[in-house]
Amino acid sequence: MTAFTERFGADGLRSVSNQKMKPYAHHHNPSTGASCGAPNNTPRYPDRVDALTIERDCLPRCWHCGAAMRPLLTAVDRNRRVSEATFSYHRCADCGVISLSPVPADLGRYYPADYIDLKQDPEGRARRTAAERYKLDLVLRFARRGRLLEIGPGAGGFLELAHSAGFEVEAVEQDEACCRYIETVLAARTYCTTDPVSALDQAARYDVITLWHSLEHLIHPGAMLAAAAGALTPGGVVLVATPNPTALQFRVLRSRWTHLDAPRHLHLIPPAVVREHAARFGLNRCTLTFTDEGTRNWNAFGWRNSVRNAAPPTLADPWGTIGGAIGRLLKPVERRSTRASTYTAILKR
């Protein structure tokens, strides 16, 4: 187990310093996460292979610790309703990572054309940037200037604010329309690719790298954390915001939780796993926040939208109002604990 010390500051952030890390053995296929016939799974007595052994060896493997992942739940696309397909999520019994398996071969179709709001009118841009302001405020607590890379910027509201604050900004984004928008409006260098890990191999070094709710969309989150660590300048910082699988909302709502967002969210990653995985690549200083403005907004959204999505279409709005009331009632619980719907990890060497 990882030995660590924790300190809660007056600002509501939790600082974690890793003192000792124990490496994990990995016996899975990094391209699929599965491990049928994986190394070291050969039985001592081949003639005694039973059904349990076969089941164990054919389960998907955890990208973080390599352990077998057990079926947890099935879900449908409640947020976008692109199809009526059912998706299976598995949980690692060792570290708690939750992953979608198998990942749809046609994953791109679950990102419809209206997935990202690209309205270019001044009022639309003003709304986008105002909603992203808390992100810049958080970054400025750890870095004041330098080169900043955002992985998955969408419409670029945060990038626009960071540029205005004096950062030299770049982006990695898979949506071609978003890339054109960022390059045209912000004149920022943009890597348009579905492989951000390879993009970082070509990119420069950065003082700040941000993944605002993008890590959970990536097939290889562990490789992404490794690549981000390798692309930092000395003293650089990585900020990761992502849904929290230890959330109260997930415990109550399960497959109906809007932050599960099947099938777009491929992984739900416990805070301890982000901390431990990043530490393998030298990011030994971790600060966690469960109370930043973004998390508070996602808490409210989670209750409201989850209940709304469960309603018949004609009752969606009143049910959403009920969900909002539930969120207000449970706000003190979510703000006092690590059970918030999302969290942000600030990772440094």
Q: Indicate the CATH topology of one domain.
A: Rossmann fold
- Please tally the helical runs, counting DSSP H or I stretches of 4 or more residues: 10
Helix content: 25-40%
The CATH homologous superfamily of one domain: Vaccinia Virus protein VP39
**Regions with pLDDT < 50 over 5+ consecutive residues?**
1-12, 15-55
Tell me the structural class: alpha/beta
Q: What share of residues are in beta strands?
A: 15-25%
Task: Put the structure in a nutshell.
The protein is an alpha/beta fold and 349 residues long. It contains 10 helices and 13 strands. The chain is globular, with a radius of gyration of 20 Å.
List keywords for this structure.
Rossmann fold; 10 helices; globular; 349 residues; alpha/beta; 4-stranded antiparallel beta sheet; 33% helix; 9-stranded mixed beta sheet
Q: Secondary structure elements and their pairing?
A:
Elements: E1 3-8, E2 14-20, H1 51-58, E3 69-76, E4 86-92, E5 98-100, H2 122-139, E6 147-151, H3 157-164, E7 168-173, H4 176-186, E8 189-192, H5 196-202, E9 206-212, H6 221-230, E10 232-243, H7 248-253, E11 267-268, H8 271-279, E12 285-289, H9 293-309, H10 316-336, E13 342-348
Parallel strand pairs: 6-7, 6-9, 7-8, 9-10
Antiparallel strand pairs: 1-2, 2-12, 3-4, 4-5, 5-11, 10-13, 12-13
Walk me through the structure:
This protein is of the alpha/beta class. It has a domain at 122-348: Rossmann fold (3-Layer(aba) Sandwich), CATH 3.40.50.150. The chain contains ten helices and 13 strands. The strands form two sheets. A nine-stranded mixed sheet has the order 1-2-12-13-10-9-6-7-8, with helices on both faces. It has a four-stranded antiparallel sheet with strand order 3-4-5-11, with no helix packed on it. Helix 5 runs parallel beside helix 6 (221-230). The chain is globular. The chain starts with a strand and ends with a strand.
